[in-house]
Design goal:
The chain is an alpha+beta fold. 38% of the residues lie in helices and 23% in strands. The chain is elongated. It starts with a strand and ends with a strand. It comes from Hwanghaeella grinnelliae.
Length: 288
């Protein structure tokens, strides 16, 4: 789910107020799984480090007799939301790797999880146990999912490029990044993510102009927010297509400055579950 919000203050009011690559055997199993998927005309599963960590944790606990395994807790311990995740396993086997993979595709209990394009990534875990009765055994776990990932490292400059390209198409001058507005926007993105809300005003009643003033920026202040968009392009596109003021804010002829904030929350819980939180503060100083 994605949402966007725009803050367009009344001009007079604003001006008058301060405003890993897998280990060898684990990699062999993932390769065997993908070869079996290819025969069924399914897309290959891409290795994911966090899913591999979850699989390793589950394998470790599964190999310990008499212990109930809380899959969700272990998956979240690996930094992944326990939602839309698949887990298949083979407990205490001596079978060759290719047979472990084949068994998952032939077993009616695991086939619906592994023989589908619902998941795009996977991680493998294995725990080796020296059983006193049966000798060396292996506990294999495959965790499948589509874990969210943060926006690219240069997200701030990517947003700026998209916004300025949009302004250029309408004959407007580019905006410049201002460090204090970056700080104001980043604080708000962090606050929304960590305090579980999505709004221009904080639970304490602080608004866009207040945040800008707190970092020493006073004058005209506009703000666009987005949540749930996983990339700069998606966030800016949402603002461009918005019917509630975001487009107008970016095309404001009076603004000169911009600051951009972003927070990725992989284990997003609570009422506002968006994972990606964007804030963009735009403005013009009162004396410029």
């Amino acid at each position: 789910m994605a949402r966007i919000l725009a803050f367009l203050p009344i001009l007079l009011a604003v001006l008058s107020v301060p405003a890993l690559a897998a280990e060898n055997r684990e990699g062999e199993l993932l390769k065997a799984v993908n070869e079996a998927r290819e025969k069924r005309v399914l897309s290959p599963l891409l290795f994911d480090k966090r899913l591999a960590k979850a699989a390793a944790l589950i394998a470790r606990y599964t190999a310990k007799p008499g212990r109930d395994v809380d899959y969700c807790r272990l998956i979240e311990d690996a930094g992944i939301p326990c939602a839309d995740i698949g887990v298949v396993s083979s407990a205490g086997t001596k079978a060759p790797i290719v047979d472990v993979a084949a068994g998952w595709f032939s077993d009616g209990r695991t086939q619906p999880t592994i023989a589908t394009n619902r998941f795009g990534k996977a991680g493998v875990g294995v725990e080796k146990v020296d059983d006193p009765r049966f000798g060396p055994l292996e506990y294999w776990v495959l965790v499948l999912g589509n874990p969210p990932k943060p926006a690219a490292r240069n997200w701030r400059h990517d947003v700026l490029r998209e916004v300025n390209a949009f302004r250029a198409r309408h004959g407007l001058q580019p905006l410049r990044l201002v460090p204090v507005l970056n700080e104001a926007a980043q604080r708000h993105a962090d606050d929304m993510a960590y305090r579980d809300y999505f709004a221009h005003k904080t639970p304490n009643g602080t608004g866009p102009g207040d945040r800008a003033a707190a970092v020493g920026y006073r004058g005209l202040v506009l703000e666009n927010l987005a949540a749930g968009m996983g990339s700069p392009a998606a966030a800016v596109e949402g603002w461009i297509n918005s019917k509630t003021g975001h487009r107008e804010a970016m095309l404001n002829r009076d603004i000169r400055d911009v600051g951009i904030g972003y927070r990725f929350l992989s284990l997003d819980r609570g009422k506002a579950v968006y994972t990606h939180y964007w804030a963009m503060s735009m403005g013009r100083r009162g004396n410029s």
